[in-house]
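Memo to structure team: turn this sequence into structure tokens by end of day. - J.P.
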Amino acid sequence: MKKRLLVVGGTGLVGASLCRSFENAGWQVWGTFCSRPRPGLIHLDLAGLKPSLMEGMDGAYAVVASAITNIEKCFLEPDQSRRVNVDGTIRLLRLMKDRGVFPVFLSTDYVFEGTRGNYREEDERNPTTTYGRQKKEVEDFILKNFEGFLLLRLGKVVGVRANDGTFLTEWANKLIQSKPIQAAEDQVCGWIALDDVAEAIRLLIETEKTGVYHLTQAESCSRWELARRLCRHLKVGPELAVPCRINELGLRERRPLNTSLNGEKFAGQTHCQLMSLDRILKKIATACGEKQGD
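Reply from structure team:
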């Protein structure tokens, strides 16, 4: 019998990558969609969850990759975002527990206050954003109610393919056209390639790991430093990376300044080397440069 996986949020960047990775590895995979129908996917709206979703899923794994992740939207529409990010997600997790489904919950570095960075799995969580508080509430539910689970906090996810919809490839396209980009010099993050997210999750599941893990490559840096390094890989002038301060951009909710994660636990237990930041930037420069030349 094939190993089985449900991907809640199968049309998102991470969810779609998970579906491909596990299918290629021989798993039986179901994916869900909310507002963007795709052939073969199951409709699921976390704000109006139906118990029938879990029928026949006994003993399967389920990755919860669906959420309202826009920080401003969560702040400006707290009730609506809570219905999805907290209430609907917890209802889904209750169904998983009733059916004996193993939950894999994708959380965020924003559960941390962001005053020092290099956060480890066991460090105190004190989120300062609405989105971070919503994710922490679900984390607390999992930690209290499940014995077997994976709770994965991700660094900032970046793609390495041209026009993949991630901010770093959009930056690359602008820089190639000599268009300046604004990047915060005071917000430091950890980073992880989209493809690495799927492979890391599959590795954790297939080696039967449980608990809390941080998924991020080893190096953290500010968004502005990231932009300058991308300029070097693209061989464009570094002056195109224009520094700014994150909380002077007119955002309605203040952002934490250093939520970088420590990924030593994952690296030590799996011996998996995630793509380095320079390799990520090199792949983006190559992909976007080739696309520009078509």
